[in-house]
Design brief:
The chain is mostly beta strands. Helices cover about 15% and strands about 35% of the residues. It contains 6 helices and 69 strands. It has a 17-stranded parallel sheet. α2 (about 50-60) links the parallel β1 and β2 (about 65-70). The radius of gyration is 37 Å and the shape is flat. The chain starts with 7 loop residues before the first helix and ends in a 6-residue tail after the last helix.
Length: about 775
């Protein structure tokens, strides 16, 4: 650095020099001011370069500078306030600055609980890397760092521990952009909001990646780990929030952001336990759009509403590839609560499981959208609510689409155990399962209400139980005219009536569907219509413990009513027939079904009219199920397919094809028809028995030798018999010749003792290896 100006050239040189970044290397952990701030040399009174002296020198130079800190603990012991010269208290940053430590584990800046660590004045930038900021304390905002308006703040591989403030225990920013990567925020505490990080009044983005927030607290306010209040974008990726707590939003609160993206992130064991007590985990309020993907939101609890996730947005919301589980709320929405006032909501490939609303509604989730709701490949299981909606409730001003989803094992103390969907538009419910849900009052399974009509296709409603006033165990339909096609209603129970299907004011056409084993305390075990008509087409009503119907249903023909209670009089309708259905099982396709057994009257039973192009499993209709040379549709949800019509003992080819049993007669782990697999299994057994020989006389030794003789002879005989069908990995190999060598070597081991036995076993092992290598792996 030039200190004396002797010419115009010197003036140019000093201008160039001061514009270049300077790196100050700190060599003392002492907290001491610079002896002569602005002289270009970092030196306290004793000559050492301290952290405080380096900050003062960097402030005196125009432009961005750097400070390099070695391993060590830097105690900020010079107490004082009310100045911005970094002379006492916090380290004031008045020029762009980068501070880099040796590592977060070894370089520690400690505020000693007397002041914050860094104060970045308006308009400047600060980057902090690879160090720890701890025990900062501020009666105000920002216990670790406070950054004023317009400051770009970059945090990389930094640990913030035990910092305290009114808001922003670790970091408080006003109107700034901030990027955080690879950092830890642990045990930071505030009396108001933002236990670790508080971002206020900004249009700038917040970007947090690969970071951890643990046991931070905002006991008197919002956002145990994080609060963002601004209209910029927020991105959180690859991060973990664990054990954070607040009065509202135990883990995080993001308010008014224009767009939020949270991906590959865990939010767990957070709590909102104050008097307000809303939202245990993630709280997004008034945001524009939200993209939520690969989240694990689990074990969070709220003393009021929203145990896991609450998202209130104006635009589109997507929740994909995530797990929301084991969350609890005292009031509504144990799992998720999502609202979009002007957009679509899409939930895909997500599990909502074991969430609880202890004294409210919607244990699993509550969703409201102004436009279209799409639920695809979602599991809602084992959730519970005290008053209503154990599983999932959704309302859409547009349409609702549910595909390939499961609503199972949910429980409510009142109405609707499984799923409740309502829309003035259409509701489409396809390839989905509603099973083993329970309501202590009405509607155990699904309650679907639509002004534009409900379409139920390829779905199963099974083992649901409605108690109390007990109407509708399986499916309740209301609203406009609805259709049920290729669907199964099995073993549902209603204490009063309509264990299978109940419709109120909604005409329903049921086509190629199966009702079996449904039970009601009164009547209408299978179907009950109130103020509406139900028309059956090519549908089977299997026997129930109580009458299946309470009144005549309309018929479009080709139905089977086992107990005759539905009084069907359409063309080719039949009653008093056992439909001969198999148990509810996985017969292929996305749902469990009842498959017709061989000889069932349902097979090729549709005598007129069209039928769906596939059955509930997606198998093409029609097939020639009775082998009379004519392909005719079956009655009910499942098409009987006989791929082995000339084999009375087999319907499907299986491993061995038609006409050959899929058996393992010698129980060696290989199906007998698979000749390569069978030979390899025999080789394994022979190797095991041969290796067990000890050369010492005993009953076990005698038995092993006898078994080995049988195996040796059997391998040669098998290779000789099946030489033409065994596939060789090496086409040049001589299969029978190799088998003869195996037989000879195995027999030789029966007479060996001691070292001689070991040599014979080694030779036999090599012979078995040669045969095994020659035989190709079995292709099934």
């Amino acid at each position: 650095m030039i200190r004396h100006i002797g010419s115009s050239l010197a003036l140019v040189l000093i201008l160039v020099t001061t514009a270049s970044a300077v790196t100050f290397t700190v060599n003392s952990t002492t907290d001491a001011v610079d002896a002569t701030p602005g002289d270009g040399t970092c030196a306290a009174a004793g000559g050492a370069c301290t952290l405080r002296a380096a900050v003062q020198e960097a402030n005196a130079l125009a432009g961005a500078d750097e400070i390099s800190l070695p391993a060590g603990t830097f105690l900020l012991s010079l107490v004082g306030s009310g100045e911005d010269a970094a002379a006492t208290g916090d380290l004031d940053v008045t020029q762009p600055l980068t501070v880099t430590g040796a590592s977060a584990a070894t370089t520690i800046i400690d505020g000693l609980g007397s002041d914050r660590i860094f104060h970045v004045v308006a308009g400047q930038a600060l980057t902090v890397r690879t160090l720890t900021v701890r025990n900062g304390k501020e009666i105000g905002n920002g216990g670790g760092i406070v950054a004023e308006a317009g400051v770009p703040l970059t945090i990389a591989d930094v640990t913030f521990h035990g910092n305290r403030a009114d808001s922003g225990g670790a970091i408080f920013t006003i109107g700034t952009a901030m990027v955080v990567t690879g950092s830890r925020f642990e045990s930071n505490v505030v009396t108001s909001s933002g236990g670790a990080v508080a971002v206020s009044a900004t249009t700038n983005p917040l970007d947090i990646r690969d970071s951890t927030f643990e046991n931070n607290s905002a006991a008197g306010g919002t956002g145990g780990a994080l609060i963002y209040g601004g209209t910029g974008t927020v991105t959180i990726a690859g991060s973990t929030f664990h054990g954070d707590s607040a009065e509202t939003a135990g883990a995080m609160a993001i308010i008014s952001a224009s767009a939020v993206s949270i991906t590959d992130t865990v939010v767990e064991n957070a709590s909102a336990s104050g008097a307000g007590g809303n939202v245990g985990g993630i709280y997004l309020n008034g945001v524009g759009s939200a993209t939520l993907s690969a989240l694990a939101v689990r074990g969070n609890d709220s003393a009021n509403t929203g145990g896991g996730l609450v998202c209130v947005a104006t635009g589109n919301v997507t929740l994909t590839d995530s797990t929301i589980e084991d969350n609890t709320s005292i009031d509504d929405a144990g799992g998720i609560y999502v609202v979009s006032s002007a957009g679509n909501v899409t939930i895909e490939r997500t599990v909502i499981r074991n969430n609880r609303s202890l004294d409210g509604t919607a244990g699993g989730g509550l969703v409201q959208t102004a436009m279209v709701l799409t639920v695809r490949d979602v599991t809602v299981a084992d959730n519970s609510a005290a008053s209503s909606l154990g599983g999932f409730q959704a309302t859409a001003a547009g349409s609702i689409v549910v595909e390939r989803s499961r609503f199972t094992g949910n429980h409510t103390g009142a109405v609707v155990g499984g799923v409740y969907l309502t829309s003035p538009g259409t509701v489409s419910f396809t390839d989905s399962t509603v099973q083993a849900n329970e309501a202590l009052d009405n509607v155990a399974g699904a309650y679907l209400v639509s002004g534009g009509g409900v379409t139920v296709t390829g779905s199963t409603f099974a083992d649901n139980m409605a108690f109390g006033s007990g109407i509708s165990g399986g499916l309740y339909l209301a609203g406009a005219a609805s259709t049920v096609t290729n669907s199964t209603f099995s073993n549902n129970f209603a204490l009063v009536s309509a264990a299978g299907l109940y419709t109120s004011g909604s005409p329903v056409v049921v086509t190629n569907s199966t009702f079996v084993g449904n039970t009601a305390g009164g009547a209408g075990a299978a179907i009950l219509a109130a103020g509406a008509t139900v028309t059956l087409r090519s549908t089977v009503i299997g026997a129930s413990d109580t009458p299946s119907c309470v009144a005549a249903l309309l018929s479009d023909g080709d139905n089977v009513d086992q107990d005759g209670s539905c009084l069907l009089t359409g063309a080719r309708d039949r009653s008093g027939l056992d439909p001969l259905l198999g148990p509810l099982a996985d017969n292929g396709g996305p749902t469990l079904t009842h498959e017709p057994l061989a000889g069932s009257p349902l097979i090729d039973g549709v005598g007129g009219g069209a039928c769906p192009v596939t059955d509930q499993r997606g198998v093409a209709r029609p097939t020639d199920g009775n082998s009379d040379g004519s392909a005719v549709c079956d009655i009910g949800a499942v098409e009987f397919v006989d791929e082995c019509p000339t084999d009375p003992d087999k319907r499907l080819p299986g491993v061995c094809g038609c006409g050959v049993p899929d058996v393992d007669a010698n129980t060696n782990g290989a199906v007998d028809c698979l000749v390569n697999a069978e030979l390899k299994a025999r080789i394994v057994t022979a190797r095991t028995v041969m290796s067990s020989l000890t050369g010492v006389k005993s009953d076990a030794e005698t038995a092993a030798k006898a078994q080995l003789t049988e195996l040796a002879d059997g391998i040669l005989a098998y290779c000789t018999t099946n030489e033409a069908t065994i596939v060789l990995g090496d086409p040049s190999a001589k299969l029978v010749k190799l088998a003869k060598k195996v037989r000879k070597a195995l027999r030789a081991t029966r007479k060996g003792k001691g070292t001689a036995l070991v040599k014979k076993q080694t030779r036999a092992g090599k012979a078995l290896d040669a045969l095994d290598v020659a035989v190709a792996p079995q292709a099934t």
